[in-house]
Each structure stands twice: as C-alpha cells, then as structure tokens.
Amino acid sequence: MFKKYSLKSKALTIVSLLFVLVFSSCEDVVNLDLETGEAKLVVDAEIIWKKGTAGNEQVIKISKMAPYYNNTTPKVSGAQVRIENSTGDIFTFNETEQGIYVCTNFVPVLNADYKLFVTAEGQSFTATEKLTSVTPIDKVEQALVPDFGGEDVIELTFYYKDPADQANFYLTDYQSEFLLFPEYELTDDELFNGNDISTRFSDEDMKPGNTVEITHRGISKSFYNYMKLILEVYDGNPFSVPPGNIRGNIVNTSDANNFALGYFRLCESDSVSYLVK
C-alpha cells in the first residue's frame, strides 16, 4: 500500500485560505488568536545508515516547540545525549552548535537493539528501537504521463525487490529545488510481499535539468504507524485542531506526563540522485 504526503500542499492551502480571508473584506483585518501550548522538548533522533558508508557520523537535534507564528525554533543547549547498544557499547553525542549533537564513532548493526538517553532541562528521557534494513533501489525510470489539467507531466518510477521472509515497511522522501518541502511516501508490503515494488513520483513543477534526491529507508512497523498519523495531520485542514498530541517512543523517566515529542528511529537507507532529462 502506498500513501504520498506533501508539506507543500499544506503551505498552498494556508496561502489560499489567507487570501480569501484578507481580500473578502477591504476594511477588516483578520487576526487569528491562537493558543500557545506547553513548550515541550522535541528530540529529532534519526540514525540513518546510508548503504556504502560507514555510518559512523550521526546527528541528533534537540529543540522546543514554538508558537505558530514564530519564524525560529528554540534550540536546546547543554543536553547530555548518548546511545547504548545491546552489548553495552556507548556512543556519546557532543554539542557542536546550539541544539546540534554529533557522534563520530557510531557503529550501526542491522537488527540490533539501541537505547537512547537524553538529559535536558532537568528531565531524563529514553527510547529503544532496532536498526531496520532496507532493500536497495534497483533502477529509476522516467516517463511523460497525462495530468488532470490535460498537460503531460514528468513521472519518475524507482524499483526495488521486497524480501519474502518478513513484513517490511518503508519511508521515502523526495527533495529538489522545485519543492519547498520534502515529499514523503509510506509503503508497506502487505499486498506485495516478496515481489518487485515500483514507486512513482511526479510534480507539475518538475522540469528537465532538475535533480531529485530520493532517499529510501527501511523502518519499523511502530515508526510506520507513527509517521502515518503525523503525515495525515499535515495533509488535513491546516486550521483544524488535532484530536491530541501524537506521542512517539521517547519516554520521560522523570515525569511520565511531561513527554518529549519526536521518535527515536534507526534506519538503513539507499539513495539516488536523479537528473531529470
């Protein structure tokens, strides 16, 4: 099953709605008074092992939630960050700039268990995950396909072989100069287990000469379910209020109610830099 999500659609919807609100009245200015919630800690902890690399350098980012109209995200300095594997090896992440924590000696092992430890602002957090493998991208093809507007658009299709002996979940992102934000696609192999899988990407702004960066990850089922909820919120009405905070796997061991946002995940990835013809 495939599902594509784009943060670009959210931005366009917001612009369209604001256009209607502002220009429907020449005299009144509409100010939206949005409530400011608790500034929770946000831990962006993706350990990503790109095929063909050592995977020794990894980055974890720690910040705090900001009000909707803020142009900057508050970075969290002075945190203590480490990851331990199941054999007791410790990988320390040192702060290289505000809110950015880097490890240069990480050792990735497929299917191994890892535990994250974060101490920040007097609170302690932990999370546990396995490093999930990914099947490599076999090839990328390009074609012109009809669009709903009547004009043909460029479509990219990449292919990979799904393993038959396990349930697999994938997260792919597409990045390019014509995209304001990355586009994400979630895939599970429920209907395609053990078969060749083809995944398609198109955008009306994609032109010859553009370079599209495709990053294809293997992810756990729990992270798949988490990302599905996150991306469904982004594709919904931007002015709607989600039914509740979407919690990841990061647990506050000091105060269970004061949980951090984000998800600790470890993914093997394959990537292709494709030049559009």
Backbone structural class: mainly beta
Number of strands: 16
- Strand residue content: 35-45%
Which series of helices and strands comes N to C?
EHEEEEEEEEEEEEEHEE
* C-alpha-based Rg, rounded: 21 Å
Mean pLDDT: 85
Count the domains: 1
Largest sheet: 8 strands, mixed, barrel
As residue ranges, the low-confidence spans are 6-26, 236-244
Q: Going across the major beta sheet, what is the strand order?
A: 2-3-6-5-4-7-8-16
The helix content is 10-25%
Our measurement of the CA-to-CA distance between the termini, rounded to an integer number of angstroms, reads 29 Å
SS field, number of helical segments: 2
What global shape is seen?
Answer: globular
How would you describe this protein?
With about 280 residues, the protein is mainly beta. The chain has one domain (about 40-240, about 245-275). It has 2 helices and 16 strands. The chain has helices at about 5-25, 220-235; strands at about 1-5, 40-50, 60-65, 80-85, 90-95, 100-105, 115-120, 125-130, 135-145, 150-160, 170-175, 185-190, 195-200, 210-220, 250, 265-275. The chain has an 8-stranded mixed beta barrel. Strands 9-10-13 form a 3-stranded antiparallel sheet, with no helix packed on it. The longest helix has 17 residues, at about 5-25. The protein is globular, with a radius of gyration of 21 Å. It starts with a strand and ends with a strand. The relative contact order is 0.21. Residues about 5-25 and about 235-245 have low confidence and may be disordered.
